[in-house]
Structures are given as C-alpha cells and as structure tokens.
Amino acid sequence: MRDIVSRCNSRERGFTYLWVMFAVAITGVMLAGAGQLWRTEAQREKEKELMFIGEQFRLAIGSYYESSPGMKRYPPSLEKLLLDDRFPTVKRHLRKIFFDPMTGTREWGLVTQPGVGIMGVHSLSAQTPLKRANFHERYGSFAEAKSYRDWKFAYSPGEAGSTASQPQNQPQPQGQPQPQGQPQPQGQTQIQPGSGPDTRQAPAQPQPSPGPSQDTLGPPSEAESDSQRLGNSLQSMRY
C-alpha cells in the first residue's frame, strides 16, 4: 500500500516539475521578446535624436560659412562653431558640442576636404540603421546606408535651411495693371486699348439758374404809381 502511494506522489511531483519548467520557458520567451522590442524602440528614438543633432551641426556649419567676412570659408574645427573669433563681437553658431546618441560620446566623424575645412559630421557607430524610408530629399542617400557612418550631415553652398520655403503660387493679374504713382481721375472710367469704342458721356454742364419771373415780382415802387396816376389824368382831360 505504501509503495502505491509513494508511486502516485512521485508521478504528481514529476508533472508539477514539468509544468514549472514549461512556465519558466514561456516566461523567458516573453521577456526576450519584450527586451527585443524595447531595444528596437530605443534605437529608433536614438535615430530621431541623431537626425536632429546632425541637422543642428549642418545648419551651424552653413551659418559659419555664409557669414564669413570676405571669402567664404568652412570652420577649421567644431569648436569654432561655439565661438567665432572672426568678428569684433562674440558670435555663436552652435550652443554646444552634442553627444553622439549612438556612441554616447562627443567624438564625431568629420566630413572634410583638403584646404577647405569641416563641411559636415557623421556618427562613428558601425551599427546598421533601422530607418530605411521617409527621409528628407536632402538625405535620400540614407536609405541605402549600411551603417550610421554613412549618415553624413554636410553643408553645401546655396542650400536652404531645415525647412526650405517654397515660393507660393501667386495669381497672375488679368489685363494690364494700373501703373503705380498715377491716380485714376475721379468721375472717369479707364478704357483699355482695343476694348471697343468709347461710350462715355461728357459730364453734364451746369445750367444757369433762371432769374425771377414776372409773377414773382414784388409790388411797384412809389415812383411808378405816381407816373401811372399822371397818365390816367391826362387821358381823362383829353376826353
């Protein structure tokens, strides 16, 4: 009897052990997946930060180049972006040397040409990028990058800023515009050449105000009354 009970207990312990091992394996797989997802999201955030920092370097190098007194030059070092000593007053094109989010250091790869200066920067990380699309047209070559070393943020003369403004479409005026500085006379309508005969009417001439009519004359004066009475007396004497 005891042997039967011990055998049953051994089987139960064996099944329990299997279930525990299965649960541990499932938990390990889930944690591994969560860890991989977290690393992927962290890398994507670092890529966004690298794009922002690289653009700041590019704009600062462009500001240094375009504001050069006399002949335009690129900076000989990144420190010149922090303090441009070519002017009497302090001028800063960049507020600080950023950390490379991929390596965690301030050491950057430099895009240079002999005798020209620093034209741009790039990361020193050999890691393969995750981002493969939706780049700005300026950085279209990043889609084929094999590592972050190929993400080169360089300034070329004549380039616009990070948000390049496009000229807005303006409607073209119809007909011939009214020349500026020549006011249109009041009371007259401008007629474009070739638009037809001139149908304008001449401005009405002011009519002279009529004088007082006979009906509105006042009573005769005293001299006129005496003359009339004298004439009547002479006519009566003739008769």
TrEMBL record:
Keywords: Membrane, Transmembrane, Transmembrane helix. The chain crosses the membrane at residues 16-38. Residues 228-239 have a biased composition (Polar residues). Residues 183-204 have a biased composition (Low complexity). It comes from the Bacteria. Residues 156-239 are annotated as: Disordered. The keyword Membrane applies. This is Type II secretory pathway, pseudopilin PulG. It comes from Nitrosovibrio tenuis.
